[in-house]
Amino acid sequence: MFIKILILIILSLSAFSKEIKDVDFTGDIDLVLGDFSKSNLEKVCNISYPPIYKFWQKNPTFTQYDILICNESLIEYAQSLGFYEANISYEISEEKATLSIQKNKQIKISSIDIEDEYKNIIGLKIDDFFNASDFTNSKKNIHKYLNEQGYPKAQLDAKAYVDIDEYKVDIVYKVEKNNLQYFGKVDIENNANVDTEFLQKEIEFKKGDKYNSTLIDKTYENLYNFGIYKYIAIEQNIDTQDDIIPINIKLIEGEYRETTYGIGYDTDTKARFKAQYKNDNFLGNLKKFTIGTKVNQDGFNIYNNLNNPYFLFDGLSLNNDISYEDMDYKSYSQKKIEEKLSFSKDFFGLSHTVGFLAEHSTIESNLKEYQSGSYLLNSLFYEVILDRRDDILNPKNGYYLSFYVENGTKALASEIDYIKTLSEIRLIKSFDKLTTSMKTKVGTLDKDLPIFKHFFAGGDYSNRGYSYQKVGLLDPDDNPYGGLSMIDNSIEFEYNVYKDLGIATFFDSTMLSLQSHNFNEKFYHSYGVGARYYTPIGPLRVDFGFPLDDGGFVFHIGIGQVF
């Protein structure tokens, strides 16, 4: 008897240990994107193939037991998405396993029992399809709302009752707020060369204020942006018996000096290289020192920046930028030394910057109408910015307004008196997965200046139906003149297809005039389509632009948001 049982065990183990080299999915499978795409199903089953460039690595193999576990995992995954009647099975033929998926009907939410105060924040509605992830997020939304309203000690009891017989889900939320809470004493532990008074300026709350978790998050962000701490902890003691929550901030200094190198590519400047040294606490109290170089196919730039964020009095920052460039542009080559000294302060909800700009340029013009030579231009400038975008790297809602004026004057030893202005407006609005973005730039020069001071348009961040700086009048050798007056418009519709992937369509329109304050010249129109892949440093953009007048198309690739 014992021998028979042993034989059965051995046979069973041999069946489960049979090598399977290929796993496939059939049935209700999404083609490329979606919850039931092949790539997602492989993740659920913990199947990972080596990337193409690692050609020396072998593909994984599987046993029948692995396929059985995969089948069970897919059943749980389908149920988490609301497909409680899904039929999932597998079949093994020789060295291949095939998993068959029939999703069938997705369960719906039949009722939601919740107080009116929270109805609009849970993100769920009656007759919506139910899935576990949305239900979990609804609870997070309620907790977030309560924390923002001053109730960090609130208790939430949320349950989803799944009735398989009637195939429905009933959801019940019960909230007990408890007492309103207030910030208590704030203690700071800091080992960096930064005076406490500078840290206190970045704390968004004070003792006695009503508790709000958003202020905690903003404080963390402010301290993180210093760039000098490897550890930031904002500890909140919510276990107190009274309605006061003491705060303890712990800061541990990290490596604030760094040397970085990077390579990149876009269709405007092609391949590029960057090397930079940065000290984020130069001589203490958060002064920043940066020196670096940028190199591309057109030349190089060497730059240096000194920033003092707390200069003289609260909120006033000092920037001193010195740079040298040796570049070949479309219409001219330039060797330029530039110094830009500026002071910035925020007030009335606006960011204001005023400063002095000195430029000494030696140019070789490719346009016979503009002479080569050396020019010294010194000016005062002022810039005001109102930025109400929800995210600088990848905004989905908000607006951005800016105005810049530069006044060159012989009183500052400038060779030419002139006034240059540039105004810009951006509007971004999202409707579910569709984001609409609009942008307009208007530039003016009050007189004809050397070619390097002209406005140019066309390229990855401008009119995408044209190559870099190729909008407007060109000479016989295809060199652009730019303009003394400019209007540069863009409108774009972007649809989020799936998670980090979006598609876009756009229309761009640009006018450049070689006369001052003249906005009646021809507009250059283009349209196009593109794709967006969202990364932590901004969207990776691929665009195809089609000029209405010239025919053909222009291809653009770059990273960073246009709007």
UniProtKB/TrEMBL annotation:
Protein's cellular compartments: Membrane
UniProt key word Iron-sulfur: no
Q: Which GO terms describe its cellular component?
A: outer membrane
Q: Does the keyword Methyltransferase apply?
A: no
Q: Which InterPro entries match?
A: Bac_surfAg_D15, BamA/TamA_POTRA, D15-like
Please list every transmembrane segment annotated in the UniProt record, as residue ranges. Answer: none
UniProt cross-references to Pfam families, sorted A to Z: Omp85, POTRA
The UniProt keyword set, sorted, is: Cell outer membrane, Membrane, Signal, Transmembrane
Official protein name in the record: Uncharacterized protein
Q: Which organism is it from?
A: Arcobacter cloacae
